[in-house]
Amino acid sequence: MLSTGMALPDLHTAADPDPLIVARAALAEVFGFHDFRPGQEEVITSLLAGRDTLAVMPTGAGKSLCFQLPAVIDGGLTVVVSPLIALMDDQVRALRLQGVAAGALHSGRSREDNSDTWREAMAGRLRLLYAAPERLMLDGVMEGLSRIRLSRLVVDEAHCISRWGHAFRPEYLALPRLRARFPGVPVAAFTATADAPTRRDIIENLCSGDAEEFVFGFDRPNLTIRIAEKRDPQRQIIAILDDNPARSGIVYRLSRRSVEETAADLVRRGYNALPYHAGMPAEQRAENQDRFVSEDGVVMVATIAFGMGIDKPDVRFVVHADLPSSIEAYYQEIGRAGRDGAPSTVTMLYGLADIRQRRRFIDDSDAPDEQRRVEHQRLNALLGLCETTECRRKALLRAFGEELEERCGNCDVCLDPPDVIDGTVPAQKVLSAILRTGSRYGAAHVVDVLTGHVNDAVTQYGHDALPTFGIGTEFDKNGWRSVIRQLVATGVVDIDTTGYGALMLGPRGRAVLKGEDPIGLRRPVKEDKAKPRRGKSSPAVTASPQNAPLLTALKALRRDIARELGIPAYTVFHDRSLTEMAERRPGSLDALSGIHGVGAAKLDKFGARFLAEIEASVGSV
Ligand SMILES: Nc1ncnc2c1ncn2[C@@H]1O[C@H](COP(=O)(O)OP(=O)(O)OP(=O)(O)O)[C@@H](O)[C@H]1O
Ligand SMILES: [Mg+2]
Ligand SMILES: [Zn+2]
After folding, report:
1. Of 215, 249, 266, which one is at a domain's C-terminal end?
2. I want to staple 442 with a disulfide (CB 3.0 to 4.6 A). Which of 323, 348, 501, 553 is the partner?
3. What is the pTM of this model?
């Protein structure tokens, strides 16, 4: 029987029905989707066959459905391990709205709520039980679970189990014990970011020997990828906001202070921005997150404490105003954009100061040497992506072991190819200025020496008498800063992370100085050309002009319903569903059920009200 109480009688009474037919029926019936997305069908088939499964699918690909759908079809209870409370609550809320019996056990809920959920689970009335790993390990919980029919253990964000991963969660180390306790129960692990060693970690710790492994590639073709030099971050952020009027987006900043400052500045200028970081009071944080997911057009200025598992489908842009920690982290963070598949833009801004700060973080951490070495390698890989003169997407996907045949046509390098110059002579000038000033000065002073700018230190130490003084006539100050950044990113120059950021010869420095290691550089752009280009914004999912008033009315209705139920607007219906309603104007419940995202439960709950709204607007035309 379908857990939702909804009938799929023909299919279920048929002898030995093809599980995929049942799955397709449930896809339409329960979730209101008419097609599987790439990969979902294969993964669901593997789960339904009871095999241990590891699925690596891109961010926003629809991994949740891959375990939710089998849970709906199967008899017993599916236990889902998930790293974040917000993530669990979000999914449980959405499932309930779709008529699926789901619950969560975690420390963020009251004792009564947790024991209600537990009772439901023990009575066999739940299809999905979400829980934090440490909850599941409690003796009483394990005991209880062993007495009921468990159909599957699901581990979401499974890369959190790997110590080498960028999001290691110590709680996940308990999971192998869970697995051992229920040896006959199939395990399904999901992640968007797992390189080969992490995948091995997951399989070894969670799965049996004959696990089925799916790796579906990482590409998110609807994301326009941009990486730009950081000049004036505030102005650059505003330009992106202006390109995306009234659209939702996330601006990531590294520190709590810069989150506060950036958000306050944006609000002062009239933007609908909110701050989010781990230092804020919990209620304030929850409220801001709620507003971000339930209102249209909020810009969340946040540290990376924000975002994991947030499934707001219509985030149209993500900005990294500071350098992320690694390619994996970057990929996961940009993955929050464009989950509805519509075009979205992700922009990273970075400069020399970012590199220095990231290096210092690693050097100052008390991680063991080996781990610090790995962290530096990860950072260097990210810097390689930042400085690449080939297609960004190609470079990004290669980092995950995936080869893109052609350039993507949808990144800053493809759209606006940089001018690559022979960097040997400029690099030698920089190296010589560094050496002749004793490898004791930061970038600002080295640039002064190169451009022949007299400052106190220059006169005091006689640097104006050096042969390198003023030889850097080919670029202006910003140009030289850009050259130095590129040299640091590529290991020609090193930056001292302990003191004042003194520049030194890097591992490649000697060879470049001798002319044995040719180096290409992006030609530094002049200040006025560095502005992010306007007008090239991504079209969102929109209705044609004659349908716009109806779409607005439907959105208002959605907001009212969301308020009445105290849930985010998009869990009522996604934008895409409303757009389709506005375009096709269904005149009956039956016709409405053919719209994307309208499953049986939502048809029941909201159908009549949306039909009435459509009818009213058709009548008034
Ligand atoms: N077959 C489908 N047709 C249309 N939309 C779908 C389908 N499957 C999933 N979706 C939608 O895709 C969105 C992203 O799904 P989901 O949250 O499961 O992504 P994910 O793969 O878990 O990504 P992440 O790694 O970022 O957590 C959701 O809004 C979901 O409703
Ligand atoms: Mg997910
Ligand atoms: Zn490209």
Report:
1. 215
2. 501
3. 0.78
